Amino acid sequence: MKQLSLRTPGSAGAAVLLFLLGLLLGLAFSFPTTALENRLLAAVEANGQIHIETDDLSFSPLLTLQGGPTLISSQASDAPPVPVDTFKLTPKWASLFTTNPGILLTAQLLGGHLQTDLYRDGTCDLRADNLTLDLPLQGAMKLRLSGRLQQATMQSQLPLQKSSESALQLTLADAKLTGLGGAQSDLTLGTIRFQAIGTGHSFKITTLTAEEGDFSLNGRGSFLVGRDLPSSRINLRADLRPTPQADPGLVSLLELAARKKPGGVLELRLSGYLSNPSLK
Q1: Which end of the chain is least crowded, N or C, by CB within 10 Å?
Q2: Contact at 8 Å (CB) between 95 and 101?
Q3: 149/226 Cα distance (integer angstroms)
Q4: DSSP per-residue codes, 244-255
Q5: Within the chain, where are the H helices?
Q6: What is the pLDDT of residues 86-123, one digit of tens each?
Q7: Both ends of the chain: CA-CA distance in Å?
């Protein structure tokens, strides 16, 4: 006599779940994490033109790479490394089925947040907010620019190509310029707003303003991106109007280099290589 084996839908579902659980566990134990960690980091470094130093990495079978304290430095300049508290790399799942796969990078750093979409062809879409900045500026003088980057966005292709279309905008609050030497105090810049669009290595500055500082500023111009920051060129014309809180000594110095316009406005021109620009 034949025996009949009857299975309920519930027992079949449980069997499937157990099978999937076993498959995931086996994948977790045998997953080539080190190789994939290295490949992902190499892809981010190549596309973003950066170098990543970290010893605290973890990888999941769902292709998410997480890191702890990290130093990120630029491959295109000798700027100081940027410390990152935590970061996460996640595939852009829909793009994996195309010829241009991408990843999503999120990071907590400098007291704020950064998020970047990076694709194989170099396309980059970056967004950042509330980053505390203290940056050395190029040139013979030991100038530093500090402030809080309220918001920044950038759409571009890295490295830049002749046909690359780029757009950049940022808002820097509580901006201050230090290291002026003879000035009686630091230069308070207030809130700076900057916007630029570009094709290839050539960019046009469409918006440059400063408010609520020692000077109100309205500028326009262009810049040409070189192989690094010192070799990049700038051509900027700006109208400055001193406010009552401006240092009289600094105003007098600027009057020597500026063209006076009606209403107490000083017109300044900044041009040349960023390594040694000239002020007219």
Answers
A1: N
A2: yes
A3: 24
A4: TTS-HHHHHHHH
A5: 9-30, 33-48, 248-257
A6: 988 888 888 888 899 888 989 999 999 999 998 988 89
A7: 106
- Give the number of C-alpha atoms closer than 13 A to the C-alpha of residue 132, restricted to the C-beta side: 6
Give the CA angle between residues 184, 185, 187 to the nearest 5°. 125
What does R_g of the chain's alpha carbons equal in angstroms? Answer: 26
Task: Copy the structure tokens of residue 233.
Answer: 């060129």
- Residues 168 and 154 sit within 8 Å (Cβ to Cβ): yes
Separation of alpha carbons 277 and 266, rounded Å: 18
Q: What is the pLDDT of residues 213-235, one digit of tens each?
A: 999 999 999 999 988 777 889 99
Separation of alpha carbons 16 and 23, rounded Å: 10
* Model confidence pLDDT, tens digit, residues 244-275: 988 888 888 888 888 888 888 999 999 998 87
DSSP annotation of 263:
G
